[in-house]
Amino acid sequence: MGSLAAAIASYLDAQAHAGEWLVRIEDIDPPRAVPGAADAIVTALAAHGFRWHGDIIYQSRNIDRFAASADALLADGRAYACVCSREQIRQVAASGPTGKIYPGTCRSRAIAPGGAAACSIRLNTSAANVTFDDRFCGRVDCDVEREIGDFIIRRKDGLIAYSLAVVVDDHDQHITDIVRGADLLDFTPAQICLQRMLGLATPRYAHIPVVCAPSGDKLSKQTGATAVDNAHAAANLVAGLAHLRQAPPAGLAAATTADVWAWAIENWRPEKLRSRPDRPMAPA
C-alpha cells in the first residue's frame, strides 16, 4: 500500500503539471531480486488504471553507464576504495538517520581498486553541505559528511549502489520532479551531493507521508505488509487518496477505477501534504 500511495501521488502530480509519468524498474541487486516481482509491479499498475509514457526502463540494462560514472568519480579523487568490513565500521561508526555514519577511515589510504582485497567505492563527502526545499516537507539542511558520511556507490561485490544508479537514470530520463515516500527524505542530500559532483541537474523533490503499520512502523514486508489485491483496484485507490489527505467522498470506492481517477485528477490538492511532522510520518 505504501508503494501504491507513492505511485498515486506522483501520477497525480504529473497530471497536474501536464507532465509525463514514467515507470522504471530498479533491478540492479540480483541477490535480492524476487522472481516475478517486476512483472507483478507492472500488472498491478495496469490493473489500477495507471498509464505511463514511453517504454518501461529496466536499470539492469544501464550498468555500463553507472560503472562509468563510478569510475569517473574514482579517477579524480571524488571517490575512493574502501576495504573496511561491516564489523569494523560497526565498532567505530556513530549512528545517523540513514544508518551507520562511515568516518572516512580509508580516505587517505590510497587503496588501489582491483587489488587482492575486495573493496567498495565510497563518495568523499568531506565538507559537503546540502540545502534544498522539499515541496511537501519544507527546508532541509544537511552536513552530509557529519550526518550521512562517505556512502557507498559501488559495493564490494561489484554491484552499483541504488544511490548512484537513480541519480544517473534521473539525468538520462530528464526527470524534473520526484515524488516519493518520506522514508527517503533523509538520504536525499546524499543524492544531491552526487548530482553536484557529476555535474547533473537536481530535480525538485516532494516526499509524502509513509503508510504505517498498526505498530507505527513503516508498512513493509518486514512489518507484515501484503501485496494490494488487484481485484479491488478502486477501493485501493480511494484508500491511497485518503492517506494522501485528499478526502475522497464516501461511496467513491464503489465506483469504477476510471471514475476514481477522474475525481482524483480534478480534486488533487498537493498543498494538503505540506507539513513536516516527526519522521516517520504517520498517515492522516
Explain what this protein looks like in three dimensions:
The chain is an alpha/beta fold. The protein has two domains: 1-55 and 209-284, Rossmann fold (3-Layer(aba) Sandwich), CATH 3.40.50.620; 61-172, Rossmann fold (3-Layer(aba) Sandwich). The chain has helices at residues 2-16, 37-47, 63-75, 86-92, 144-147, 162-172, 188-197, 233-243, 257-267, and strands at 24-25, 57-58, 79-82, 94-96, 99-101, 120-123, 129-134, 138-143, 152-154, 177-181, 204-208. A three-stranded antiparallel sheet has the order 3-6-9. Strands 1-2 form a two-stranded parallel ribbon. Strands 4-5 form a two-stranded antiparallel ribbon. Helix 6 (162-172) crosses helix 7 (188-197) and helix 8 runs parallel beside helix 9. The longest helix is centred in the N-terminal third of the chain and has 15 residues, at 2-16. It starts with a helix and ends in a 17-residue tail after the last helix. Mean pLDDT is 90; it is low at 276-284.
Produce a short descriptive summary.
This protein has 284 residues and is α/β, with parallel strands linked by helices. It has helices at 2-16, 37-47, 63-75, 86-92, 144-147, 162-172, 188-197, 233-243, 257-267, and strands at 24-25, 57-58, 79-82, 94-96, 99-101, 120-123, 129-134, 138-143, 152-154, 177-181, 204-208.
List the helices and strands and how they pair.
Blueprint: H1 2-16, E1 24-25, H2 37-47, E2 57-58, H3 63-75, E3 79-82, H4 86-92, E4 94-96, E5 99-101, E6 120-123, E7 129-134, E8 138-143, H5 144-147, E9 152-154, H6 162-172, E10 177-181, H7 188-197, E11 204-208, H8 233-243, H9 257-267
Parallel strand pairs: 1-2, 10-11
Antiparallel strand pairs: 3-6, 4-5, 6-9, 7-8
